[in-house]
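Renewal narrative, Specific Aim 1. Our central claim is that a sequence can be written position by position from structural information alone. The example that follows is taken directly from our test logs and has not been curated for this report. It begins with the structure tokens describing the chain, in the order in which they were read.
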């Protein structure tokens, strides 16, 4: 149902449009167009009516395409087609049409809302936020619930600082490295960079080494980067702040930078503290890839916070995680920022055994041959292994409901489940291999090549 004043106006207008034409009248228009298919004015009249009838969506698309054959520059028809494509999930097509209209100043505010939502659907948050801000600047009644929810816009609600205070939280993780299966070489790197400096702060100080700094974890999804970051905080009994993209980005200019600064200040006030940024490529994208200045401003703020120009980052341990290191601005890899970059691969056979044991630790199981199962899980990530256990568990639950007798999970159940789940890392390695072979001048992706050579 409509919410704001502008929504009610558009809702009533739509209802009026629907009631103006009955089914016979729509049929008469369609018949008239058959007799005069090149009559653009008549066809557009039908289009304007059809757009309010979801049941005629295919007829609407057919008529729009036909009209644009006779009048390719008909901007009103193009805008309706862009909205139709968005509604049908053809987001890329909607963006192409709407961007062309916007460039020629022929896109209405309603159309700009559709374009902003299309950007959001494509995870282009920067452009979605900027375009939505421009629309609301011109007409505050043009609010959209989806965009409001994404960018935390509240009418007569709390301000930026209050919203941030509500969403930010500091926790003390109860897990440590013993809860992380495998990844011994990654743990060793973190131990050297983060844990040892805290345990031997005075010794490190004599060599001019600060306690803190940044580590960037990269690799295929589901391989435990987030879990590892939380376990790091638990290992040193430090605070842990998990920062997501939506915690930072705000549609109003300058607020994103304020949000980012507030998170760093929270970490500085609770030293030692692990400040974890998931999907950091979204916040630290290459500045050359960004069209709008607002995105570049957020990146510059991030770099300034990492440098601790105006604040002391001693004791603040910054961990970033990404599945797409090739999209991160090279400035983040400068010494003193994320100067230790660690590849987090899928677990090896021994690590898969450990992960399986952890996943099955609190589930009924009996005589499982962990090594046999692990050897069949080629390219499985930690998340894939957990999914495998879930599939096996569900099959045993179905069996128990039929027989009334619960049975433990056995080796054969896990092997059967493995036939129903494909490794999620394969697509990632296809992309990563191309970067490692053709865009690896700095040697950043040597670890990927080394891993692939061992397979």
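The sequence written for that structure reads:
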């Amino acid at each position: 149902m409509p919410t704001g004043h502008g929504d009610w106006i558009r809702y009533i207008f739509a209802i009026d449009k629907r009631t103006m034409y009955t089914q016979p009248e729509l049929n008469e228009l369609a018949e008239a167009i058959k007799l005069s298919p090149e009559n653009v004015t008549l066809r557009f009249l039908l289009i304007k009516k059809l757009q309010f009838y979801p049941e005629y969506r295919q007829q609407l698309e057919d008529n729009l395409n036909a009209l644009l054959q006779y009048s390719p520059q008909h901007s009103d028809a193009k805008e309706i087609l862009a909205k139709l494509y968005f509604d049908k999930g053809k987001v890329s097509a909607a963006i192409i049409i709407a961007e062309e209209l916007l460039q020629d100043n022929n896109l209405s505010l309603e159309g700009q809302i559709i374009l902003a939502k299309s950007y959001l659907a494509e995870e282009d948050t920067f452009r979605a936020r900027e375009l939505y801000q421009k629309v609301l600047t011109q007409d505050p009644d043009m609010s959209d619930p989806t965009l409001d929810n994404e960018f935390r816009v509240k009418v007569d609600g709390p301000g930026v600082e209050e919203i941030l205070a509500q969403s930010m939280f500091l926790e003390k993780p109860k897990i440590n490295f013993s809860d992380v299966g495998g990844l011994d070489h990654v743990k060793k790197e973190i131990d050297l960079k983060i844990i040892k400096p805290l345990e031997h702060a005075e010794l490190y100080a004599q060599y001019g080494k600060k306690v803190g700094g940044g580590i960037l974890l990269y690799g295929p999804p589901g391989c435990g980067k987030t879990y590892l970051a939380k376990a790091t905080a638990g290992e040193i009994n430090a605070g842990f702040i998990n920062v997501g993209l939506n915690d930072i980005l705000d549609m109003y200019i300058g607020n994103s930078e304020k949000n980012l600064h507030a998170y760093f200040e929270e970490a500085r006030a609770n030293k030692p503290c692990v400040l974890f940024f998931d999907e950091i490529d979204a916040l630290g994208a290459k500045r050359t890839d960004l069209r709008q200045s607002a995105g570049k401003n957020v990146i510059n703020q991030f770099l300034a916070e990492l440098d601790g120009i105006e604040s002391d980052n001693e004791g603040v341990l910054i961990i970033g995680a990404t599945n797409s290191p090739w999209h991160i601005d090279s400035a983040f890899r400068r010494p003193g920022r994320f100067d230790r970059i660690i590849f987090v691969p899928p677990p090896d056979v021994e690590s898969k055994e450990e992960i399986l044991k952890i996943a099955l630790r609190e589930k009924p199981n009996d005589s499982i041959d962990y090594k046999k199962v692990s050897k069949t899980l080629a390219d499985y990530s930690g998340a894939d292994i957990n999914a495998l256990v879930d599939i096996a568990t569900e099959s045993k639950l179905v069996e128990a409901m039929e027989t009334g007798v619960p049975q433990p999970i056995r080796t054969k159940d896990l092997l059967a489940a493995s036939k129903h789940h494909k490794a999620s890392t394969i697509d990632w390695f296809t992309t990563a291999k191309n970067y490692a072979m053709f865009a690896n001048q700095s040697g950043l992706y040597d670890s990927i090549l080394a891993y692939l050579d061992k397979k």
